[in-house]
Write a sequence for this structure.
């Protein structure tokens, strides 16, 4: 990585503030960002590393997960790497759901879905829809809307990404169970 990951609680928090300021700059001045293009290998590798770190930090440290999602999104935006932007926007949408900042989460999820659809990358499309389904579950959306997004998880399986497919199935079944829809959750998890 160009910049090593910070260690220590306050170093992570300071890095989050810096990355939030970068993201605000990207939102305020989108014309200064490069147009869609094939990013260099270093930018793609950084994006993959931030995504992998996010997978680990999802289970261990939500502050670091916030930083990972911001860094993935910011690096990908600067490089014009649409797959990374879609995945980073999904991650930041998830973080906004956890905080909760529903309106901002909805914006990032919509951006992730639109960009993922434009890339025609099956795993990224499915990931954007699966993470958006978590948003709809958390905001009490209609069950049909939740299942629409979660059914897009089938695309993950078709793309061969069994990790995300399994994670999507477990997460949606868990959320359905929490909503009191035990029979639906059980049927959903049998696949």
């Amino acid at each position: 990585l160009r910049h090593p990951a910070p260690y220590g609680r306050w170093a992570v928090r300071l890095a989050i503030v810096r990355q939030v300021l970068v993201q605000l700059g990207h939102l305020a001045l989108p014309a200064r960002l490069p147009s869609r293009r094939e990013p260099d290998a270093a930018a793609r590798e950084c994006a993959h590393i931030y995504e992998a770190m996010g997978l680990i930090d999802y289970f261990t440290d939500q502050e670091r997960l916030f930083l990972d999602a911001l860094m993935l999104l910011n690096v990908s935006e600067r490089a014009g790497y649409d797959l990374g932007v879609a995945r980073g926007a999904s991650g930041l949408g998830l973080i906004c759901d956890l905080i909760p900042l529903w309106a901002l989460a909805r914006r990032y999820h919509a951006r992730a879905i639109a960009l993922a659809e434009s890339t025609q990358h099956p795993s990224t499309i499915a990931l954007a829809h699966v993470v958006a389904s978590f948003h709809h579950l958390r905001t009490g959306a209609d069950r049909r809307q939740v299942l629409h997004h979660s059914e897009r998880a089938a695309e993950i399986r078709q793309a061969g990404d069994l990790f995300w497919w399994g994670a999507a199935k477990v997460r949606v079944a868990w959320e359905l169970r929490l909503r009191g829809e035990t029979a639906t959750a059980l049927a959903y998890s049998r696949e």
User: Anything to note?
Assistant: DSSP finds ten helices and no strands in the chain. The CA atoms of residues 6 and 14 lie 9 Å apart. The mean pLDDT is 85. The radius of gyration is 16 Å.
